[in-house]
Amino acid sequence: MSLAEKIRASRKLEIKVGEAVYFARRPTFEEFGTWLRDKLTDPEIARRYVTGWQNVRAKDLFQDGTDDLIEFDQEVWNEAVGDMPDTWKAVVDRIVTATNDYHKSAQANSKNSRAGSNLKRSVKS
To answer: Domains of the chain: which residue ranges?
Structure first.
């Protein structure tokens, strides 16, 4: 596994909602910072960061759905999530918590690093 793949893997999240499990990724600090600027809604955040699911049935996605398990499809997720407030809330809460936890950890690691070991960007006039 390459270093880039390890970094991406470190952002993976699992969110359980009832019997369903949604797979998502934690946004980077850069992405997280754009949420307010872009005025993203919770369903839009869920659309952007959910990458798969397990144990999702048609009835989880729409009112007249069956008990049939549904394979993840991004287009189906994008369409369905707007009518799934309990799910989008659980997904976004977990993404925000994971991002906050990561930020706290990064701050602690920065404070605990050896003096002089942090690279500083210099600005030339």
So the answer is: 3-112
